[in-house]
Amino acid sequence: MFAEEITCTNCGEKYGLEFKSGLCGSCGNPLEFRFDYEKLKESLDIENLAGRPKTIWRYFEFFPIENLGKVVSLGEGYTPLIKARRLGLEIGLKNLYLKLDCFNPTGSFKDRGGSVALSRAVELGLKGVVGFSTGNAGVSQAAYAAKAGLKSYIFVPETVTHEKIYSMAVYGSKVFIVKGTFEDAFHIALKVSRERGYLLNGGILNPTRLEGKKSIAYEIYEQLNRSVPDWYVQAVGVGTAAIATWKGFKELVEIGWTDLIPRIGAVQAEGCAPMAKAFETGSREIAPVEKPTTIASSIAVTKPLGWPLLRKAIRETGGTVKAVSDHEILKAERELATLEGVWAEPAASAPLALIKRGLNEGLIDKDETVVLMVSGTGLKDIKAAEKLANKPIQISNELDVKKQIDS
Fold it and tell me: Is 244 helix (H, G, I), strand (E, B) or coil?
């Protein structure tokens, strides 16, 4: 294993790899794994990847897991990267690609973090996991906990969709709907995880989740014939995936596979956009949102702890964080479906709204290569689809229905 230590992202306090908490004992901030990139560079040749399984575990050297015999996997990762020709032509972008993480086992990009997080829980000998989620991460936790045979408790805010709640419950997890926000769900989960001695599994507060999501960058690099896009665009609630992808591209620079890092584009919904507002005002601090009001419930995080790291990623890459309206999000969801055959949930459609805004404002050039992360399937939010889909037409059972169809 090439992971060396766990370090606080704020104060720099160092911990051994056996450390089980996701928070710094000195300042209470999130932690991250540090790797020996020189040794990794010497040990790993890109040509060695060719014969490996097409899952995130083809990149196992980049993960903080020592015993590969304890890996918990459902075949996650190496999702398709397709060129969106019709959509690109429609919006005036020559090289638009869709990273279809909606094709992961539970229908979202969260499976990348779920696999590595549950693998670490098993390796550490823990008996259960406690999560807090706006939906997709909870579904992923439930599936991977079931695969691992661990107990699973998930706390969700009352804004989570019906489809996601029952997707968690069907795997056997105990799901608790909190009368409050994502922040309220977090505080309860933190307390329960400490009382039970279980792994806290939510957002940026479990550093192994971030490590799993780094694989997005490695896959894009391989799928673009060992090149890096100009832009990587992602919807953000806490910001973990965007931060992780940024870290993944930086690691590719560290080991000498590329010398480029894409600009990070992050998008929030106007009804819950604390990070977009902080970026607009140049603030290091965010103003928490008291009550989120958006159709994109997956990114409705009222007080995202990922802002310091996401802010750094945006500033270092020359990227942006913007908020888009629910109207723009639903329009983007329809365009993805009708022009490219990709049905994304509202949060996963929001990046398209940002890309269109960026093109109109001159932030994104029509000749640049842009990768849009489709983070979750539209099947997770049927009610949103009802707002934009063509209404089904009821007809009689007559053999000749031409007149009915044409009418």
Answer: helix
Distance CA 142, CA 144 (A): 6
Domain annotation covers residue 341 = yes
| Residue 381 resides in a domain | yes
Structural domain boundaries, residue 297: 81-107+212-386
Q: Per residue in 212-269, pLDDT tens?
A: 999 999 999 999 999 999 999 999 999 999 999 999 999 999 999 999 999 999 999 9
pLDDT category of residue 385 using cuts at 50, 70 and 90 = confident
C-beta separation of 131 from 138 below 8 A: yes
Q: Can you give the CATH number for the domain in which 313 is found?
A: 3.40.50.1100
Residue 403 burial by CB count (10 A; 0-12/13-18/19+): exposed, middle or buried?
Answer: exposed
Give the number of domains in the chain.
1
pLDDT band at 23 (very low <50, low <70, confident <90, very high): confident
Distance separating alpha carbons of residues 175 and 165, to the nearest angstrom: 7
* Domain assignment present for 394: no
| CA–CA distance, 406 with 402 (Å, rounded to integer) | 6
- pLDDT tens digits, residue range 32-61? 999 999 999 999 999 989 899 999 999 999
b/e map 43-72, b = 16+ CB within 10 Å: ebeeeeeeeeeebbbbbbbbbbbeeeebbb
